[in-house]
Design a protein that fits this description.
Helices cover 80% and strands 0% of the residues. The chain is built from five helices and no strands. It has helices at 4-24, 28-52, 55-64, 68-88, 95-114. Helix 2 (28-52) runs antiparallel to helix 4. The longest helix has 25 residues, at 28-52.
């Protein structure tokens, strides 16, 4: 059994290590496992969040009519897209869309974090 602090930090560790590895990867063979690690962190975070979400987020989800999977994974898709574009773009052309995707992804994720009733201890 893991200590509570480590258990709560695991999705964030997966996301951070997958994000840094995605940003620093130079080939497809390192990019694929990095994206898988990031996706594992996102999946773990979504599963845990479902049990901790307050009613505001559920009302928003039903009001928008977004499918569950799209509502939950949209911030992570934006962040991962931004990291891939930023890390793989050989020139500065993809830098602005990458930063925009990262900022919007982080903004959406922070709004999801505010709807959690239990955070990292």
């Amino acid at each position: 059994m893991l200590p509570d602090k480590l258990y709560e930090a695991l999705p964030y560790l997966y996301l951070a290590s997958g994000g840094v590895t995605t940003l620093c990867s130079q080939s497809f063979f390192t990019l694929l496992p990095a994206m898988l690690l990031f996706t594992t962190g996102a999946w773990t975070w979504v599963i845990r969040t479902e049990k901790r979400r307050n009613s505001y987020a559920l009302r928003f989800q039903t009001k928008t009519g977004w499918p569950f999977w799209w509502y939950e994974f949209y911030p992570f898709v934006l962040m991962l897209s931004g990291l891939v574009l930023l890390g793989q773009g050989p020139n500065g052309f993809w830098s602005l869309p990458a930063v925009v995707a990262l900022v919007f992804g982080l903004q959406f994720w922070c709004s999801r974090l505010s709807c959690r009733t239990k955070g990292i201890y």
